[in-house]
Amino acid sequence: MIRCDATKTHPTINTFQHQNQNKMKLNSILSYVILFYSSNELLAQNTVSGKITDKETKLAMPYVSISIPDLHAYTTSDSLGNYHFEKLPKATYQVQISAVGYKTFSKVISVRDVSVINFELDQSTTELAEVVVTGSSKATEIKKSPVSIASVNKQYLTTNLSTNIIDAIAKIPGVSAITTGPNISKPVIRGLGFNRILTLFDGMRQEGQQWGDEHGIEMDNYAFDRIEIIKGPASLMYGSDALAGVVNLIPNQPGLENKISGNVTTEYQTNNGMFGGSAFLTGNKKGLEWGSRISQRMAKDFQNPIDGRVYNTAFREIDANGFVGIHKNWGGSHLRLSLFDNLQEIPDGSRDSLSRKFTKQITEADTFRPIVSNSELNSYSISVLHQRVQHYRAYLKNSFFFKNSRLDANLGFQRSVRREFSHPEVPYQDVAGLYLQLNTLTYDIKYFIPEFNNWETVVGANGMYQVNDVTKGTEFVIPSYNQFDLGGFATIKKDFGKLNLSGGARYDLRRFNNHELYTKPNPVSGFDQPVSGNDVLGADKPFSNYSTTFHGLTGSLGFSYLVSDAWALKLNLSRGYRAPNISEISANGVHPGTNLYQIGDDRFKPEFSDQADVGVSFNSKQVNASASLFVNKIDNYIYNQRLLNTKGKDSLSFSGSIAYPTYKFQQGSVLLYGLEASIDFHVIKQLHFDNSASLIYADNESYTGILKTTATKYVPFMPPFRFISELKYEWSNKSEVFEKPFIKVQVQHTATQNRVFTYDNTETRTQGYTLVNLGAGTGLKNKSGKSIVDVYVLANNIFDTAYQEHLSRLKYFEQYSASPNGHLGIYNMGRNISIKLIKNF
């Protein structure tokens, strides 16, 4: 007989029960897995298909582009006008449809199981419903966004001549650029630049010593499908550095389903002999997408009618990027890698006093400078004095769709290595003057809460961890540092049909740590080098340990109202935030790329801006017009000011035995206000007459009473009034040889800038100018009607006008108070003609 004790469990029975429990748990897990994959298979039936026709003729429209921006999904209609998307997550999406000669059409669709949705396009030459993804939780139409947004498409980038990707957008109303020659440009939005503008690569913040003004944006000129620009504070979505706006450069997207496609671009520019080439290849099959691009550019010194060729403005650049991604019914995941490697010469503007020919530094003591020979000015070789900027990027973008919600989780890593080789007697591969190594880890998480009564609510957090090391150089203008950014936000939006409301709030925190630095001359080379331990005795100490925390509360509230099919109104109120950058806080030394001694101030507070933006737009078949007014009050505004001594001469700071003019950052309050307007006429379908203007005023309220004079009343480096008018004719596409041929003429007038900050000779007025640009292009077809190649001939400054941009740093590269020819500083590029060939396959 077996006796069973009610208070104890027999070991065999206990083991048996545990085994059963484990089996039950395993079965449960297997059941969940089977259910998950089963539901995925069911969700895999989520398809959208239909037909695209002409609204008037009802005829099918083949080869029309259809996109779902939130999913990075693209397709085209077939020869019968049919389109098809499959394996889409259940959700609502903004769909955009575009075709040459038709209004861009946009509509919100709901994807549930098998959906058949047909579209009709209206013949027109105006763009009415462009969809953007920047500055909003979801893709939205520009006219429905309260924020002032501009979008630049691939056609615009292709048919306009520029020498770098930022110059490509510098003609957009309200947008300009700070330049240092053809390959160094940084964006300016409504008079604000550098760390006040956040530059994005496919939505990921770009980090590459952007406080500096002597290098450009580390991105491939040929890599972008479109560019989206937010004009005004965008701290709500992006945090610090988006106080003035955002420039989002969106790279080439995956090709069509079950296709391998790509293109090859070659380009030559006459002014500086620039050769450029790029090749792109992409594939897409069953939700698996991939693509890669490699590009290269090289140029010699640019030229203008006043200076001839400008010494040390040549460059050589190579870029590459690649991506792989997957789209399934649960969402999608994309990994993108990129590299940028640029050798860029460093001009200093030194000249012979009589001939005005450029001279060059050949010794460290710099007691004698020979005149640069013509062979050097026309050489593609990079001189000893140059900088090398390298940027590496890897980021992973993920979207996960649930029953009624969505989670976006993005993670990125960037490494920026920037070296300025400023020692003429040392081989450049051995010793760099400035040697900066910046590593940045970024994160961005957004959760889309299930909609309630059509209210769209998103909560999220984003920020970065950053480490910058300066210790490998011989010249130290900033210290090493590390910082951590954390920002949390919530946005809410509702579409009432004609009325669209949106707003939100955000809190940001930045923890910043300076690292102390001791330096001594190297006993062999004589160059300064970092020292530590016992070696700090008798050493210089340019930087001390310093820690601080910046924080800010920001938000926005706005609406757009569609008065009718033609008229739309916008109003947006926003508050922006920017923490001071490393140079503004800690700079204490000579910057090799600027030849000035810069001083920072660790007592600075964060900048805060309060902006009101009012906009109105009108669209019809013949006219497309818009206007935007803004007022922006910035507290704790940081600006750079030249220092003079008591005799009114340059206040000089010494580095070794050499004296340099001294600049010191200041902080105060400013008021910016202005207008942007455009009107495009399309009286006949083939003829486009586009006009735009932008005006910015800026009052410096840092000075009051008797200190507020004509020398101090303005804010430094504000772009002057600009008007651009373009007449473009496109032939009807009936030729057996030519495809979409066009010809255009553009007139760009920039007014004289007299509203300048002349205190201590910080800034000088700039004479106005007018430039005339020309362009023509066409596709060539073979006898069977297939495309052979697209050909473009574009010309800027066709009359070779001598001019200086007000925001050109080269304008101030001058060591004499007068010159024999009556011209001071370096002038901008003269006539430049580009020949561009593009082969699509």
Descriptive overview:
The protein has 841 residues and is mainly beta. The protein contains five helices and 48 strands. It has a 22-stranded antiparallel β-barrel. Strands 11-17-18-15-16 form a five-stranded mixed sheet. A hairpin with a 2-residue loop joins strand 20 and strand 21. The termini are far apart.
Q: What are the SSEs and their pairings?
A:
Blueprint: H1 11-43, E1 47-54, E2 65-68, E3 73-76, E4 82-85, E5 91-98, E6 105-111, E7 114-116, E8 119-121, E9 131-132, E10 140-141, E11 149-152, H2 154-159, E12 175-179, E13 185-189, E14 192-193, E15 197-201, E16 204-205, E17 224-231, H3 235-238, E18 245-251, E19 259-269, E20 274-285, E21 288-299, E22 303-304, E23 308-309, E24 315-328, E25 331-345, H4 374-377, E26 386-401, E27 406-421, E28 434-452, E29 455-469, E30 481-495, E31 499-514, E32 517-521, E33 528-531, E34 540-543, E35 546-562, E36 567-578, H5 582-586, E37 588-591, E38 596-599, E39 607-619, E40 623-642, E41 652-655, E42 658-681, E43 687-700, E44 722-730, E45 738-750, E46 769-781, E47 787-796, E48 832-840
